[in-house]
Amino acid sequence: MNLALWITAGVLAAVCLVGSSKMFVPREKLAAMGSSAQWVLEFSPGALKAIGAVELLAAAGLILPAVLDVAPALVPLAATGLVVLFACALTMRLRRGEKATIAGDLLYLVLAAFVAWGRFGPESFTG
Predict the structure, then answer these.
(1) Average pLDDT in the chain
(2) CB under 8 Å to 113, separation ≥6 — which residues?
(3) If we measure between CA atoms, which residue out of 61, 56, 47 comes closest to residue 21?
(4) Would you say 93 and 105 are in contact if contact means Cβ atoms under 8 Å apart?
(5) Global pTM?
(6) Confidence tier at 34 by pLDDT (50, 70, 90)
(7) What is the 3-state secondary structure of 3-64?
(8) Cα torsion angle, 87, 92, 93, 97, sign
(9) Cα separation of 39 and 30, whole Å?
(10) Do residues 22 and 53 lie in contact, with contact meaning Cβ atoms separated by under 8 Å?
(11) How far is CA 46 from CA 23, 31, 40, 56, 67, in A?
């Protein structure tokens, strides 16, 4: 179980690191990546930078506290934050009628919920 939680946290951290590119890539360039990226046009550049920063912090929060053994209780909190982030992403996609593209967000939400559950419960770093 511990290994599965580490692998899942690593996958989520990688996804968040890729997603944090919103902080550096211009909105128009992101929108040109395809029809599933058109949502960025509904957000200001500042909002996209904030979303990217949240994803970068989530990536760090999923891995670094446990690896460095500094406040490892932050790992399930970071995973819970990701659950909220991906729930918001799902809501936005459903509002936009992008039902075909919600599978990835739903998968990431489930993975983040698994890490939060596992690190708050059976494989807690504090217990």
Answers:
(1) 92
(2) 79, 83
(3) 56
(4) yes
(5) 0.91
(6) confident
(7) HHHHHHHHHHHHHHHHHHHHHCCCHHHHHCCCHHHHHHHHCCHHHHHHHHHHHHHHHHHHHH
(8) positive
(9) 9
(10) no
(11) 9, 15, 11, 15, 31
